[in-house]
Specification:
single chain; 237 residues; mainly beta; Porin; 10 strands; 8% helix
């Protein structure tokens, strides 16, 4: 269980107000199903403002994403899905050298791993194709509103084996950080119908429109982007 203290209550009140409005809109129709899913996320950040020669090399961050969505049939193959999710985003920065030791390649360096943990409210518009058999497919797209619960930077030394060095909490209330993030989602999925529901899989791309870091002092601006895959179960209601 994740327990965090969220000091910015006006922002959270806005977040929950939007979430409530979406749930009311979905429940205005006959409720169709609850979709629970889990999977990995693979994220990174785009860098703007800083000179290209000063930008460190970044690699994908692997995290966890979990979500619960209400999926409402709108007819003619279309549906709307919304709910709440937990998603980890971030990036890796590594500095080091590669060398040979006794004719064996060895990498020596230090890696910094930045992780941001988000509460996310997606709104997916879906189009489904379903034949006579149990298999179905769909495409989806839509916006997402996210709120950063907490963040941290971990450093570790890359020697013959990895050694953890430090773990530092980020103060996301500082002016350079933006807890709220707007982003866009798009992807594809599939379903396997069973007696009481369906197995679901989906893969998608997410692109952040908001700056998660906006440091005017050093002219550094970061936006999230990445991919994710989920597998889950849809309960027909």
């Amino acid at each position: 269980m994740i327990c965090v203290f969220i000091p910015n209550m006006p922002i959270m009140k806005t977040f929950y107000t939007i979430a409530s409005a979406l749930f009311i809109a979905v429940n205005a129709f006959a409720q169709q199903g609850l979709e629970l899913s889990i999977g990995p996320s693979f994220t990174n950040v785009s860098v703007r403002g800083l000179q290209s020669s000063l930008r460190p090399d970044r690699t994908l961050h692997t995290g966890l994403q979990v979500q619960a969505l209400w999926d409402q049939d709108l007819g003619s193959g279309f549906s709307m899905a919304t709910g709440l999710g937990y998603k980890e985003k971030g990036f890796h920065v590594r500095e080091g050298i590669d060398m040979d030791v006794f004719n064996l390649p060895v990498s020596l360096g230090v890696e910094a791993i930045t992780t941001l943990k988000y509460l996310e409210l997606p709104l997916q518009w879906r189009y489904h194709t379903q034949g006579d058999g149990p298999l179905g497919f769909f495409v989806f797209a839509g916006p997402a509103l996210s709120y950063a619960l907490e963040g941290e930077v971990r450093t570790r030394a890359n020697l013959i084996f990895d050694v953890n060095l430090t773990k530092t909490k980020l103060n996301l209330d500082q002016d350079i950080y933006n807890r709220m993030e707007w982003s866009g989602l798009a992807g594809v999925g599939g379903t396997l119908r069973l007696k009481s529901g369906a197995l679901t899989v989906q893969a998608g791309y997410q692109h952040g429109f908001s700056r998660v870091v906006d440091n005017t002092l050093i002219d550094l601006r970061l936006r999230n982007y990445g991919f994710g895959m989920n597998i889950g179960y849809r309960i027909s209601l």
